[in-house]
């Protein structure tokens, strides 16, 4: 049982993966514990940022926050904190885990493809560098 579980939210699947992680985390949470749901919005590379309106990043961040809050509100009586960060997903997840003193990080992973063996997936980087337990679900 855990006091603080961090869930790495993937919003590209209309939040279905995140909802599934919340359902599983709920069973592992101590009474009075909380979930922290984090989504990291990839920053636009510098070479492309000059051609994209600055407000686009802010809009992406607001949309992610709205979606996370909607998912959190569906969970009912469980305490859920939502966090949206900008940057590299693995670094954002690990940073949030440290800041919130998470006991467990839950992250979904796709079936690795050929490219993952060379550059690694976000889940792989989180597992390698986390200072706490990580549960990877497929």
Describe this structure in words.
The chain has 138 residues and is α/β, with parallel strands linked by helices. It has a single domain (2-137), classed as HUPs (Rossmann fold, 3-Layer(aba) Sandwich). Helix content is 44%, strand content 27%. The protein contains six helices and five strands. The chain has helices at residues 16-28, 46-49, 55-74, 89-100, 116-119, 122-129, and strands at 2-8, 29-41, 80-86, 104-108, 133-137. Strands 3-2-1-4-5 form a five-stranded parallel β-sheet, sandwiched between helices. Strand 1 (2-8), helix 1 and strand 2 form a beta-alpha-beta unit. Helix 4 (89-100) runs parallel beside helix 6. The protein is globular, with a radius of gyration of 15 Å. The two termini are 21 Å apart. The mean pLDDT is 89.
């Amino acid at each position: 049982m855990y006091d603080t579980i961090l869930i790495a939210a993937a919003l590209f699947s209309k939040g279905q993966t995140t909802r599934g992680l919340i359902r599983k985390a709920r069973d592992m949470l101590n009474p009075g514990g909380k979930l922290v749901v984090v989504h990291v919005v990839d920053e636009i590379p510098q070479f492309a940022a000059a051609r994209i309106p600055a407000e686009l990043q802010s809009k992406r961040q607001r949309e992610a926050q709205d979606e996370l809050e909607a998912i959190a509100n569906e969970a009912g009586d469980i305490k859920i904190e939502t966090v949206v960060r900008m940057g590299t997903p693995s670094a954002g997840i690990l940073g949030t885990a440290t800041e919130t003193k998470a006991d467990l990080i839950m992250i979904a992973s796709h079936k690795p493809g050929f490219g993952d063996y060379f550059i690694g997936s976000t889940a792989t980087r989180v597992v390698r560098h986390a200072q706490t337990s990580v549960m990877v679900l497929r």
